[in-house]
Structure formats: C-alpha cells, structure tokens
Amino acid sequence: MFIRNAWYAGAWGHELGTGNMLSRKLLGESVLFFRKSDGTVTALRDRCSHRFAPLSIGRREGDCVRCMYHGLVFDAQGKCIEEPGRKGVSQNTDVRHYPTVERYKLVWIWMGDPARADPDLIPDCHFQDDPAWASDPRYIHYDADYRLILDNLLDFSHLTFVHENTLGGSKKIAEIRPKIEQTPEGVKMTRWYLNEPCVAPYLDGFATFDGPVDRWHVYSLSTLGNVFVMDSGSAPAGTGAPEGHRVPEAMQFVATQIATPEDETHTHFFWTYAHNFRIEDAEFTRMLGDRILAGFLEDKFFIEKQQEMIKEGGAEGMAFILADNGLALGRRLIEQEIAKETASAES
Amino acid sequence: MFIRNAWYAGAWGHELGTGNMLSRKLLGESVLFFRKSDGTVTALRDRCSHRFAPLSIGRREGDCVRCMYHGLVFDAQGKCIEEPGRKGVSQNTDVRHYPTVERYKLVWIWMGDPARADPDLIPDCHFQDDPAWASDPRYIHYDADYRLILDNLLDFSHLTFVHENTLGGSKKIAEIRPKIEQTPEGVKMTRWYLNEPCVAPYLDGFATFDGPVDRWHVYSLSTLGNVFVMDSGSAPAGTGAPEGHRVPEAMQFVATQIATPEDETHTHFFWTYAHNFRIEDAEFTRMLGDRILAGFLEDKFFIEKQQEMIKEGGAEGMAFILADNGLALGRRLIEQEIAKETASAES
Amino acid sequence: MFIRNAWYAGAWGHELGTGNMLSRKLLGESVLFFRKSDGTVTALRDRCSHRFAPLSIGRREGDCVRCMYHGLVFDAQGKCIEEPGRKGVSQNTDVRHYPTVERYKLVWIWMGDPARADPDLIPDCHFQDDPAWASDPRYIHYDADYRLILDNLLDFSHLTFVHENTLGGSKKIAEIRPKIEQTPEGVKMTRWYLNEPCVAPYLDGFATFDGPVDRWHVYSLSTLGNVFVMDSGSAPAGTGAPEGHRVPEAMQFVATQIATPEDETHTHFFWTYAHNFRIEDAEFTRMLGDRILAGFLEDKFFIEKQQEMIKEGGAEGMAFILADNGLALGRRLIEQEIAKETASAES
After folding, report:
1. pLDDT at residue A344 in the model
2. What is the band of C236 on the pLDDT scale with cuts at 50, 70, 90?
3. A315 and A195, same structural domain?
4. Nearest Cα to B206, choosing from B251, B253, B160?
5. Is C30's pLDDT higher than 80?
6. Mind listing the pLDDT tens digit for each residue in C34-88?
7. What is the predicted pLDDT for the residue at B72?
8. Is residue B177 part of a domain?
9. Which DSSP letter does residue A199 get?
10. Which of A92, A137, C189, C210 has the fewest CB atoms within 10 Å, i.e. is most exposed?
11. How many structural domains does chain A have?
12. Contacts of B158 in chain A (CB under 8 A)
C-alpha cells in the first residue's frame, strides 16, 4: 500500500532529453515520461488504452505519442486524438495523464487525485539547484520495500555499525538519543556529537582542520513523497557550531534522499549530497558523491537482506528497541495517511 | 482456460525421427511424442503413472517406452505392460494416451475426450504439403497467452504500424475496414487494398512488375485449434485480381499460422508461408520465410510486451475500437466454446 | 510440513572453523551456526530480533555475534546482551537458540521443542567416525522435496534402471522383493542377490576376486531426521555372506544418507560411504566416493525431474505398485508423526 496523494520524484530532469521517452514503474504502474517541445515534461500511463501495448515502444510524433501496435495517437494530456480507419475516436480511449512539475532538478509526479495536485505541496529540495550549493544527482535501485529505506534513515544508530568505515566512524552516534519531533510534514530528528576525536572516514583528506570535531545530523522526513532532507556537518570542536556559528573550516552538507516506491518490494532512490564549500570544484563534488555512494551501498546491502528475511518468514514480530522512536513515528504517520486515503476512497 | 476438444498442432512431423522422443507441454500438460516402427506417431502423457518421472528421460524399447526410474514399460497406447518384480502389472498404471494424426506435415493431437477425436475435424492446411505450393515449416515460442496472438491476427490494422517496414508498407491497411464474417469454423475476414503505389517491403526484389498494385488479405480463423489460414497476394493493379483473375506476375501466398497453448501464458506458434510460384527454388522459399520471420518477430515483441503489462495490472479495461470487430468475435467464440465444455464437464 | 521434534543434520563439523559463521536454511528457517572458543557449536535463528537483518552478515565478537545493522549483541544462547545507547536491553530482543550436538562429524540441530532435545535420540551414524572404517563427508543440494529422496531410498528397484551402469548392474535388484520391517525408528529393508555373475559397475577394479558374487543391501530409515543407514556389500558367491561369514575378499560398506529439508521443495543431502578395507588408502576412499557420487547424481536428475512434474500438475494420483511397500510405509510414518505434532501443537 502506498500514499497516492503526494508528489513523488519520478525522474531526474536530465533523464528526459528532447526526443526520448522514459518508462518507469511507480507505485506499481508503468509511467511514460517525455519532454514536450516547450520544454515541460508530461507523464502518461505507459499503456495504450486499446490493447495495453506500452506506449514507450511507440513513436513520438511532436508532442504526441503514437502507439505502434494499432496506431492510436495520444496527445500530451493522454487524450486519444487519432484512431486509424475512422473519423474521431472510440470511447474510453484516453490514457491516464498524471500531473507533473519539474523542480529542483527532479520531475515530480502526482499519482493520486489530480484535483489535489497543488505544486505548493512539493517538498523543499532547493539545495539541489541553489547556486550557493553544489551536488551531483544520483540514483540507486533497491530490491526492497521503500519503508525499510525510511526505517534506515530514521534510525541513525546504524551509522556506527553499517557505516563504521565510511559515514559513521563514531560510537557516539549509536549512543546518543536524538531529539525527535513530529512536524506538519512528518518527522524531524536532531543529533549532535560534540568533541569527537576526528571527522568521519568519508571526510578524510577533505577537512582543513585537525583535532576534535563537533558533528551534527538534523534531518526531516516528509512522509508525503518520502523525502528526507538532512542538514549535517563537521566543525572544529568548540567553535560554536551548536549555536549556529560556522567558522570557515566548518564543512556543511545538505543531503536529499527520496524513496519512490516502484512496487511493494522495489524502490527508486534519488539522492544528492550538496556542499556549500569548494562549490566550483566539480571533481570534489564527484569524489564526495562517490564516497557517500560507498556508504549508501552498505545500506542497500543490509536493507535488501532484510527484505529477503521478510520474504522468508514475514515481517511480523520485530522487536521494538529504544532507538526505534523515530522509525516508529515515521511508520505510524504513513499508515495513518494510507488509512485516511483508503477510508476516503471507500466513502 | 483452453478448449480441449480440438485438434491442436503438437509438433512438426520432422521433429520426430525414428528413434527420438519429444517432450512438449501443451495446454499445461507435458506430452511425449514418438514415432513408431510403422511410421505413425503416438503421444502419451510424459509422466510415469507410478512416481511421475517424465517418460522422456526413459528409454525407447521398440514401440514401447520404459520409465528408467523403476522400470515400468508402457506400450504406444500408454498401457503398462511390464512391472519389474511381478507377473502382470498393478492397477491404474496406464498413462494417458492422446489421439494423434499426422497430416499437412504436422502432428495433430486431441487433448480432450478421445471419443470425439474425429480426424475429419482437422482444419485444412493442405497448402503446407500441396505439391503446387512450396513452404518451409517454422516455429516460434511465445511468452504470451495464445489469445493475444489471435487478437493480433484478427486485427490487421497493426500491419501499418508494427510492420511498417516489413509486411505492411501501406497506410491503407489500417484505414480500410475489412469484411468480417462468422463461419462454421470461426471467423473470416477479407481486405482489399487497390491501386497501392508499390508492393510491401518484404516483397522488394521479388516482384516481377513495377508500379501500382492490388493487394489482398483473406484470412480464416478456426477457433478449434487456433488455426489461421490466410490467402494473400499482390498483383499489378487493375489486372482483375479482385474478380479472381491472376496474371502471371501476380504473387499469391497462403500463410498457415497455428497458436497452440503451452500453458496460460506461453504459446507454441507453428507457421508456414506457402507460395505457388518459383516453387522449385528452395533458396527463394528460405528467403521469403526469413523475411516473414522478421515481421513475425515484430509481432512477438509487441505481444510479449502486452503480456508484461497484463501481468503488471491485469487485462481488465481494454478499450474497444472500431478495428476490434474481428478480434472481439474471435474472443467471444472461444469463450463460448470453453463455457460449453465446462458446462458439459459439470453436467 | 516437517517433523520438528527431531535431530536434523545441519552441517558437517568441518564447515565450521574457529572464526567463520555459516548460514543455512533448515525447515524453512535461516539458521546461523558458529563454533565457540570452547570448540562447541551453537545455532541461532539467523535473523536479528530487531529489524530482521541476518546475523550472518554481522560480526563475531568472541562467543557473541553483533548485528551490524544497529549493533545489538547476542550471546551464544541468543540472549541479547547489549543494545547501543541504553543500559540493559529492550524486551523481546532475544533470538531463538536451537539445541545442537556435534557427533559423527555432523552438527545435529533440534528445530522443535528444546525441552525434548535429548541427545540420546540422535540416530547412530558412528560408521562416519569409527576408526575401523574410512569415508569422506559429502554434500549434495537438491531442488526437491525431501520425501522424494526418501522414496528413492526406500525403493531399491530403481538401482536396476537409474543406476544400470553405476550402482546397480543387475536385473535382480528390481526383481527380488525385499523383506520389509517396521522398526521403532522407522523402516528396515533387506535384500540379498545371490550368485550374481559379477560385482556392480562401481566396484570395477576394486574387487580382489573374479566370478559370481553374493550381494546385499540392508538399510534402515529413521524417520526422525530422515537418516538412512545402509549395510551393503559383495562377497564371492557361496562363501557364507548371508549367514554372516565374511571372507577377506568380501567388500563391506556402510552408507549414511541424510535428507534435511531446506524448505518444502529443497533439500540438503549429507552422505558418506564408509568401507572397512583399505582404510588407510585416502585415494581409494576418494575414488570410491566419486563413483558413488556419479550414481547419486543419477538419482538427483530423476528426483528433480519428478519435482518439476509435481510442480506442473500436483502430486495427486500416483499409482501404487508392488515395489512401493517400503516407501509407502516411510511416507505413512512421517505423516503420522507430523499429524501427532500438529495435534499436540493445537491442544
């Protein structure tokens, strides 16, 4: 089950050139994306209304797409405008059109009730294209339920163990209880690790200071769209980072991580790791991204193994530990939203 | 669900040599074919009655087959005639025997009530071995429901699009409504495209005339066995082809296409494309077959994609367009026949 | 369905070194085996109690294992002894511990009620480590229901056919009815083939005598654990083998074959083929094992094909023949035991 009335990241804008078509399964439905001549993106159900051939193996004709099985043509709104061999078209031949908005380098898609698709609801991911920040858009495919990915992000105690030699590097991460807040959008969690002996392994060679460090992770999950934005950083210890002061040596990052369900057990994971220093240095941006990727692949390994165990024996009976307050809140908010949608659909 | 009381093409005769055994799943059941010393073919359930080892991994012993697990021997009628370690045989040890007839280069098999297996019901495919015609026997395996293949054959509007550069080559095919008739066997459809500028691409270099052409497709589906026979051809325009006159330059073909279900979502496709000119020219027959194959692989690509979409979201909700009269009739006749068999089985 | 209250062979002792962890699915559950510092073996559910990550991708810490997802530590009894970030541990965080005993080179595991795990119930497989006998421990993985393997072992008539050129080599095996007895543990079957012209093919070059031979197979199945022990041999004909006399040229073997279910349709097969002559000759032991393996792979081929046929059309309707008394008894005893466990679980 998925929340449907939400903006989901469906594709990176750069995946859509001027002539190509992209087919991607989202929430169990194959969706066709393409960019129109005016530069905007459109999204249709990637399935001809007639005999269900995918439109993505059809042909772009201007801002329309022709199903190359029997030749029906659909405009960018999914309206069937040509049926070979007759004037006009038969009934019920339109294909579903999904509202889309391109923003923050991403194509956002609304899979629920189109009337509710208010662009103002798109979560703020402006760090992805804010000129004061630099990042590379990245993608990982998961053979796992998206909720296992959210669980992972909502319990940073795993950094100590899964990411011992990459993103973690400190026992304190697992020892310190975060501050957890429910927000209008979802969950906010705040952790500070003060006076740690050194920076995390993934920052080796990047730091311009030696000695003890104050580290922080402040992250927010928007349960609509599964968008996770994390403010994190490392500053020389005792230079006022917790109070908001940033000395020039401080390294600050904003990570954006978005888990869009492909189906019940597969997930599209879009992410960036923006930095506001050395922003002109594309090689640095790439190296930083690669180091973060190494850490994220550690997550992927664990999460996909979890999924295998759930396939073996179900998901019932997981023990609840102290570190689970964040993920439990996230799970509860998602369940409530799905229940609300289900109730609304039934009434 | 399949019609069971019908002659299905189970194998090409040439697949059965003097000593080999052929195992092929038909209508969900593994069937063993072999050729007896008198040259006729027999078909048994490819499953020992005892512990269900396939007989096809057993041993031919004359016109019998020995299960090489525990040594039971079955004659060509499936009767168990030897059980090692005892005189006579135990009860219920016979395996199912299916009526077969070898005709038109094919081995036909009757998977339903043997009492109804009248060879006169075998659809006429005589063009496959009529000495006035030449063709190569061909086979394609489909990862798709056989009904999707019939749909394809019953809506030739797809020639314009799927086969734009092979079998089609004319917009008229999609534009002209065929004449559709229900026949005692199933469906007959007739289409003429007069005064087209040139022959279809697959005939490039084969035609002995230039200039405009009259083309036709007259095809008949027998829903018992899913046998499709198509009279098609191309003649110089205005030379009387529609009235039945064939000038020497006219090229006439009879295609036979048979979709035998392997199971619910896989199909055996047996076909020939017979021509009645250059019939001594084996190289021409082969080249013609290869060009037709190129077109049929285009169908396969679309049809298997359709199957994937149906797997994703079911087959409900396909829109009905004007071109669908033929396929809708075919579907209805098959459903009626299955319903009749089901009712008869229950009463 | 499996008998749970039984000792199953879970691993060869040599699979567990001093530092490694072995994950193996048994009766549908992934189990983690490792050897403690005192040399004994322990077995835990290979699934963290918290978020179900496999412990086998965690870390050995002395005799404990740390889940490397969120850092929980479990002792060798499965007790959670550390939860990062708090004193003590949360409730319900222990993982299941299974009783194990290492004996006869095997690690035996009890998947049922631990209170009933009496080591005296372990079937006698002492030939595997008796210094008067030599054998190599071997393993085969089957894509088949374990009961199909037991069926195979309980009907030696298949030796004549499946193993015509390896373990069999005599028509008599299929012709002679064995003596079948129900024992407290399961089933015992006895067969003698007297005055056969020569030894079985797998003994070619191993026999130190020529001419006729008395052969025997006396085998016992313990249905608890699916342990099959077979006394077999070949002696010069007429030298008193049936009466228990063994001349020096007689070759005697004790095979141990154990079918531990992985899940409903996959099986772990542990086996040895012990001989009490040339026991210092490791090369002979290896060659003998390889020849037996060739025969066992013939079984595997047939049994996995049976499984495929059962997948195609179910297991109902197998005919019962005279040779089936042994396997029918084995099946019945297993079914009775499962029914007893089910009834006991429900009451």
Report:
1. 87
2. very high
3. yes
4. B251
5. yes
6. 999 999 999 999 999 999 999 999 999 999 999 999 999 999 999 999 999 889 9
7. 97
8. yes
9. -
10. C210
11. 2
12. 69-71
Asked if C29 and A313 come within 8 Å (Cβ–Cβ), the reply is yes
CA distance A177 to A196: 16
Smallest Cβ–Cβ distance between C53 and the set A176, A302, A319 belongs to A302
Q: Which pTM value belongs to this model?
A: 0.93
Residue of chain B nearest C149, judged by CA positions: B51
Same structural domain for residues C208 and C250?
yes
Interface of C with A in 188-247 (CB under 8 A): none
Asked whether the predicted pLDDT for residue C170 surpasses 90, the reply is: no
User: Is B29's Cβ below 8 Å from some Cβ in C?
Assistant: yes
Distance from CA of B338 to the nearest CA of C (A): 20
Q: Which of A120, A141, A157 is the last residue of a domain?
A: A120
Average pLDDT on C308-335 reads 94
Residues A211, A339 within the same domain: yes
Q: Assess whether B72 and B184 both reside in one domain.
A: no
Whether A93 contacts chain B with CB within 8 A = yes
Please write down the long-range contacts of B252-255, taking CB distance under 8 Å and 24 or more positions apart.
Answer: B252/B276, B252/B277, B254/B127, B254/B133, B254/B229, B254/B230, B255/B219, B255/B228, B255/B229, B255/B230, B255/B292
pLDDT digits (tens, 9 = 90+) for A15-72: 999 889 999 999 999 999 999 999 999 999 999 999 999 999 999 999 999 999 999 9
- In this structure, the answer to whether residues A76 and A222 fall within a common structural domain is no
Record: contact A70-B158, CB cut-off 8 A:
yes
C 261-320 → B contacts, CB under 8 A: 301-302, 305-306, 308-310, 312-313, 315, 318-320
Per-residue pLDDT, averaged over C77-105, amounts to 96
Nearest neighbour of C174 by CB, restricted to B30, B51, B84: B84
Q: Say which of B177, B308, B319 has its CB closest to residue A50.
A: B319
**Same domain for A311 and A189:** yes
pLDDT means per 10 residues, chain B with 347 residues, are 96 94 98 97 98 97 97 98 94 97 98 97 96 97 98 91 90 88 96 93 93 94 96 96 94 97 98 96 97 96 97 94 92 96 86
> Which of B24, B51, B79 would you mutate first to test chain C, the one with the most C CBs within 10 A?
B51
Instruction: Give a yes or no: residue C308 inside a domain.
Output: yes
A18 and A76 inside one domain: yes
Which residue of C30, C53, C72 is in closest CB contact with A306? C53
CATH number for position B191: 3.90.380.10
Contacts of C90 in chain A (CB under 8 A): 319-322
Residues B130 and B82 in one domain: no
- Structural domain includes residue A315: yes
CATH number at residue B41: 2.102.10.10
Tell me how far CA of residue A223 lies from CA of A218, A271, B184, in angstroms.
16, 16, 61
- Give the structural domain span for B67: 7-120
Residues 136-165 of A with CB under 8 A from C: 148, 151, 155, 157-158, 160-162, 164
Interchain contact, A49 vs B309, CB within 8 Å: no
Q: What is the mean pLDDT of residues C224-249?
A: 95
Residue B1: inside a domain: no
In the structure, what pLDDT confidence band is assigned to residue C91 with cuts at 50, 70 and 90? very high
Among the partner residues A25, A30, A51, nearest to B318 by beta-carbon distance: A51
